[in-house]
Design brief:
Layout: H1 3-15, H2 18-25, H3 29-43, E1 48-51, E2 54-57, H4 59-86, E3 90-96, H5 102-114, E4 119-125, E5 141-145, E6 153-161, E7 163-168, H6 198-204, H7 218-228, E8 232-235, E9 244-248, E10 255-262, H8 268-280
Length: 283
């Protein structure tokens, strides 16, 4: 029973969907299904009930899930301790500026409890770089939002947040219960500087080319709306500043909170970071 196979099993058990688990593991579904079948053969019992209604854990699967999580957790602790023993264990984390996400606070507390000797260095990036220095090789892992150019990166979704239109409180559209992108088609939007990742720029402009003032930080976005009456998108659950309001955009996909790191990077500190982040953002 290999640790890799246990990681496969835990992914399926947590997702309760082979397709989503395969995507999370960055592999195709057939080898994942074969690995789970082989594990069931080794154990001598079914781990999942598979039906047209979906996938559920069997009682044996539920027992293995608890044991597998404990084993994998211990294995990650050993790897991190070895890295620390070699000397000066550090991890550099890139984050988007002006982030007040409670998930990040839970992650920081949990990571410190798990790895108190590890020095965590934080690099804050503005809105022009959604990878927070990852593509440039300035950080080990990024705690950020998608979508962006994922070439050469591994990206793991932590949560998806609905978005809304950021408007002045006295804007005629501010009285609406919800909006569609078409309602904002003739408005000026705040834009990111030239050279910003086009996938990232397109998402925050609702998938259309826009005109408007250029901004680099969250506060500049808010000020552009407050002073100029421009519009843009923000997270629906963010408390708007005085004089501003947020109206749900019902035809925009949610904004994904993600952890990203260089493809193929086996740093145990990163593996543990992503594991702890997954739990912190689901609490």
């Amino acid at each position: 029973m290999e640790l890799r196979t246990l990681r496969y099993f835990v992914a399926v058990a947590e997702e309760l969907h082979f397709g989503r688990a395969a995507a999370r593991l960055h592999m195709s579904q057939p080898p994942l299904s074969r690995a789970i079948k082989q594990l069931e053969t080794e154990i001598g019992a079914a781990l999942f009930d598979r039906s047209s209604a979906g996938v559920t854990l069997t009682p044996v699967g539920a027992v293995l899930l608890n044991e597998a999580r404990a084993l994998l957790d211990q294995a990650d602790r050993v790897r991190v301790r070895m890295a620390t023993a070699v000397g000066g264990a550090t991890i550099t984390v890139g984050v988007l500026g002006d982030s007040t996400d409670p998930g990040a606070a839970r992650l920081a507390s949990a990571y410190h409890r798990r790895h108190p000797p590890v020095e965590v260095r934080i690099r804050e990036a503005d809105l022009t770089d959604p990878t927070c220095g990852l593509h440039a090789g300035l950080v080990d892992v990024a705690l950020t939002r998608g979508p962006f150019d994922e070439t050469g990166l591994t990206v793991h979704e932590l949560r998806a947040d609905p978005v809304g239109a950021l408007l002045r409180a006295d804007d005629p559209l501010a009285r609406r219960d919800s909006l569609k992108l078409a309602d904002l088609a003739d408005r000026r939007w705040f834009l990111f500087p030239e050279g910003t990742d086009p996938i990232w720029q397109s998402y925050w402009n609702g998938g259309e080319p826009r005109e408007g003032p250029v901004v680099r930080a969250v506060q500049e976005c808010r000020q552009a709306v407050l002073w100029n009456g421009t519009v843009g998108m923000t997270l629906l659950d963010h408390e708007p500043a005085q004089g501003l309001t947020v109206v749900p955009l019902i035809d925009m996909p949610p904004s994904r909170v993600v952890a990203a790191w260089k493809e193929g990077d086996k740093n145990p500190l990163i593996r543990s970071f992503v594991q702890i982040a997954t739990a912190a953002y689901h609490d």
